[in-house]
Amino acid sequence: MSTDAQLLTREWVKQLVIGEGLCPFAHPVFDTLLIDVSHSSDLETVTAEFMHLLQRVAEADPQQLPTALFVTPEVLHDFDEYWNWVGICDNLLYQLGYEGILQLATFHPLYLFEGEDEADMSHFTNRAPYPTLHIIREAEMEAVLASATKPERIPERNRKHMRRLGREGLLKAMPALAKSRVFDDQR
Questions:
Q1: Residue 176 domain boundaries
Q2: Which positions ≥6 away from 128 have C-beta within 8 Å?
Q3: Would the pTM of this model clear 0.90, i.e. be above it?
């Protein structure tokens, strides 16, 4: 059963992450990408669901489940609250024995890089329609990075691309973002 949050997140990955080349590693796993949406408004329940997904990914065959997105449309709307929760999730990953096996990447509708002007388009490299954690297999990431040309330049290239694209270009690439919190100027 697909949900609106699941569909919008999948569209975001297809149109922006892959379509705009933000992650050159996303296209090969797109067809097997698991998007797990928590519909709970209770953070304790959401955290338990996240722990279950961590275990599921860690124990799955990497060919069957190479990566997963955990989406939380009902909670963590405040970026600082989300960032604190990410720290808890990182700690849980360590406590569950998955350090060195799995890692997390962070996305939020109001993502802000420390030290960047709030209006800078660079933040949009990590802005997703909903608070999201990306569970990545470290071995897979290391293999992909070893075959990539100058992977250390990807973050800066993405920031420059978002600045060139601008708000209008981003909305042209994915009009559905206009209805999401990604462009919510109310912080």
A1: 4-181
A2: 9, 12, 71, 107, 108, 109, 111, 182
A3: yes
